[in-house]
Design brief:
174 residues; alpha+beta; Jelly Rolls; four-stranded antiparallel β-sheet; 19% helix
Length: 174
């Protein structure tokens, strides 16, 4: 991951302006190798298990949640799939928000409260091969080479950006 294009991807929602059901980040997987979620101020992060059960995330103090991204899925030949997640304004978010607002009001403090979370998106450097790792071959019978071809992390990133309509040109890696 040395020299990878690591990104900080904070998300925020004004809890005064929106209400239950507001979508901060719709259901998705990340393109990166690993997504690292820090503990947010309020609940609202939801993940899907392998059996497609949606569940809220509770990150203990001093801990992080690490999810596999598309690149991790690629290097494991699909053995470890990318983790689906979303951030929404839930009933649990509202309860926590109202509690915090009341606590601050009791102290004479009035301020706008936001749900803020910090996420890092960790990538390989662009020239790194993302071919399924031979060291993991014992975990899977056969790799779908069409789905997980041998190419660079940059090529995988461009492929994923194109698939999501986010790639704007065919520029080369710099």
């Amino acid at each position: 991951m040395k020299s990878g294009l690591h990104l900080l991807g904070p998300t925020g929602l004004d809890l005064e302006k929106y209400d239950v059901g507001a979508i901060v980040a719709g259901m998705h997987v990340d393109i990166c190798l690993l997504t690292v979620h820090g503990k947010p101020r309020y609940p609202g992060l939801l993940i899907w298990s392998r059996d497609w059960k949606k569940q809220p995330v509770r990150i203990p103090d001093g801990c992080l949640l690490v999810q596999s991204g598309r690149t991790f899925e690629h290097i494991t030949g699909g053995y470890i799939p990318a983790g689906f997640h979303e951030v929404i304004y839930t009933e649990e978010t509202k309860v926590a928000f109202e509690k915090k607002k009341s606590e601050l009001a009791a102290q004479g403090i009035t301020r706008n409260l936001w749900r803020v979370s910090s996420t890092t998106l960790n990538h390989f450097r662009g020239s790194m091969s993302v071919a399924p790792l031979k060291e993991l071959k014992h975990l899977y019978k056969e790799v779908d080479e069409e789905k997980y071809p041998d190419f660079t992390a940059w090529d995988l990133l461009m492929r994923e950006l194109k698939a999501t309509g986010m790639k704007v040109d065919d520029g080369e890696q710099t």
